[in-house]
Every structure is written in C-alpha cells, then in structure tokens.
Design a protein that fits this description.
Blueprint lengths: L1 E4 L10 E7 L6 H9 L6 E7 L6 H7 L5 E5 L8 H11 L4 E4 L10 H6 L7 E11 L5 E5 L5 H5 L7 H4 L13 E3 H6 L12 H8 L4 E13 L10 H18 L3 E4 L2 E4 H29 L3 H14 L3 H16 L4 H12 L1
Helix pairs in contact: 9-10, 10-11, 11-12
C-alpha cells in the first residue's frame, strides 16, 4: 500500500485519527475534505485509504496539500473489504481517538470539539450524536435523533443498548457522528470482521458489552444517500448478515446473555429476532420506496411501492400510490411531506 502525505503537526488536546475508505468519489470528496478542514478542533490526522479509484479522487485529495492528511492507495478490493480497510487505518493511527467520515459525507464544524470533551470518564468507549441525511445535492431528506430511551442511548447500565442492537437488529448509531476511544477498539481486537458486514454494526454491538456510550443531542454528521453509494443497493443483504452476526453472538453465549443492562434467554431472543425479520420484510419495499422518493428516483420509487401494494392493497395504500405517480409527474417528492404532515396531525 502506497503512502503519500506529510507528517502530522502538533496541536493542543488529544490527537484524533480520522478514517476514510474511499472509491471513486470525485463528485463529493472535495466537499468532504473542506468540511473536515473547517473543524474548530485542530489536532487531528486523517488516514484516507483509496480502494483503487479510477476517477479523479486521488488528484482532488492531493490537491489540498494538507499536512495532516495521510493518503494511501491500494488495489481495488471492493465493498466487502471495508472492515479490513478500517483495521488497516487503525493500525496506522497515532491518535487516542478514532473518527469516521465517508468520502461523500460531511461534518458540522464543531463535531470534534464537542466530542473530545466526552471522554473524561474512563468507562466511556464511544460518543455519537444525531444525524442529518442528505441527498446528492446536500439537501436534507431526513433527520435521526438519538433514542428516546436514555438508558439505551447511553448503554447504561452496561449492555442496555443490546435491546436495540440484538432484539431489534437496529444500529441507531450513525457512522459520521461517531468518535471512539482507540484503546477500547484495541481491547476487542479492532473492528469486528464478519462476512458481509461493514465495520460499524458488529463493532458498536461489541463495544456495548465493554463500556458506556456518550450520546449528544446535536447533529454531528451529514450522511449522504444517493444511488451511487456503495451500500445503497445492498440493504436487504446487509440486514440478513446482521441477523447472522446476532445469532452467532447468541450461540456463543449458549443459554443466556447476562449483563447488568441486558438479560435474556436464547429462546426469547430467537423469537424476537424472527418477529423483527418478518417485520423488516413486510416493510422493506415500503421503506425503500420512501427513500427513493426522497432522493428523486421516482420511477424506482413507484416500482418499489408497487411491490408493497401487491402485499397490502388497502384504500390508504392505493392513495399513497397515486401520490408516487403524481410526484413523478411533478418531479418533486410530495409523498414524504404528506406522510410527515399526517404523523404530526395524529400526534
């Protein structure tokens, strides 16, 4: 693996090592770099591993001539090597803390400054915040808050977050908002490698058995959703792999998982996961249609909702289907605003 860049510079506060695997992100990487350069917290290094990009990604990165950026390039390995790329970056990291940003995501300028302060207590292994989902043009399409249940959000007592991670197979922690203690990652052997999964779900899941989380009720990252992103077309496959990981974890603990914040028998866990999987499949085409409409892919959205309509043909869903067709005609999403208005009126 080839390195290009200059040594990091000394600044006040603990060093943060930022990690970015990147592949063919010439459309967004410049904006991503500028969002990191605007950070009010200055003591960071940035390890970018280029997975053999064939566009102008490399040229754009190196054009910034930023001393804190350490650029590496490898032969293309593909989406299933993302976790290994993060482990390579972890081996290269000199910082006390690890942060994450994909080559098409963005940070608010105060992200690192707010989070570095959250590790005063030694039992805190991970800090995260709320996440704004944006489309290819940077427009907000959704907003994800930290969980309402504060014990789950803070993983307090230890293991409480598993009620979401394990029984709901739900990763409520979004990558661009995360800051992790490097020593905590090293304690669990680095990023948890599981076939078919990226670096995040299995690693946050495992860290929930190690220490406390520090959630912040602020937007700490902008996660870009567009049809060219690596994970966009693999959501069902990834969810099935998450279930496989969870069941592997359960089987390794035999009859019962016992932690201060989580205690559950194997049979109860299996029933809960089975129900969750059926729920996911029932809603898959509905949720996908809503996302596709948010990012302006109206033909694909109509097709996805049509598949949902085949299973649940009610008067309400027929009306929603008409809104999908109207959105395509207007080239503007009116489905999601209508849904949000209805939810607000009901609440």
């Amino acid at each position: 693996m080839e390195e290009q860049g200059l040594k990091g510079i000394e600044m006040k506060g603990p060093l943060v090592s930022i990690q970015t695997p990147v592949f063919n992100q010439e459309a967004y990487i410049g904006e991503t770099i500028r969002s990191v350069l605007r950070q009010t917290y200055r003591n960071w290094e940035w390890i970018i591993i280029d997975d053999g990009s064939t566009d102008k990604t490399k040229e754009i990165i190196l054009s910034f001539r930023e001393k804190r950026i350490r650029y590496y390039r490898q032969e293309h390995a593909g989406i299933d090597d993302i976790c290994q790329m993060h482990n390579k970056a972890l081996d290269l990291a000199r910082g006390d803390f690890i942060a994450f940003i994909d080559g098409d995501d963005l940070w608010p300028e105060h992200k690192l400054e707010l989070q570095v302060k959250n590790f005063v207590n030694d039992d805190v292994v991970l800090s995260y915040g709320e996440c704004c989902l944006i489309d290819s043009k940077g427009r907000e399409i959704d907003y994800v808050k930290i969980p309402d249940n504060r014990n789950i959000a803070a993983n307090n007592p230890l293991g409480t977050a598993l009620w979401e991670f394990l029984l709901r197979v739900n990763s409520f922690i979004y990558d661009p908002t995360v800051l992790v203690r490097k020593a905590s990652l090293e304690k669990i052997g680095g990023f948890v490698v599981f076939e078919g999964l990226a670096h995040d779900f299995a690693t946050w899941f495992t860290l929930a058995t190690e220490g406390a989380f520090q959630p912040l009720p602020f937007c700490l990252g902008y996660w870009r959703k567009h049809n060219q992103s690596l994970t966009f077309h693999h959501s069902e496959y990834r969810f099935r792999k998450k279930i496989e990981f969870v069941m592997d974890f359960v089987n390794r603990h035999r009859d019962k998982i016992e932690l201060p914040g989580f205690s559950c028998g194997k049979e109860e866990i299996e029933r809960g996961i089975s129900l969750r999987f059926r729920e996911y499949l029932d809603r898959f085409h509905y949720d996908r249609a809503m996302l596709l409409a948010r990012i302006g892919m109206f033909g694909e959205a109509r097709e996805a909702f049509g598949k949902f309509l085949e299973r649940d043909r009610t008067g309400k869903n027929i009306l929603i289907n008409c809104l999908f067709h109207l959105s395509g005609f207007l080239n503007h999403d009116i489905v999601n605003p209508a849904r949000k208005l209805k939810e607000k009126l009901i609440s």
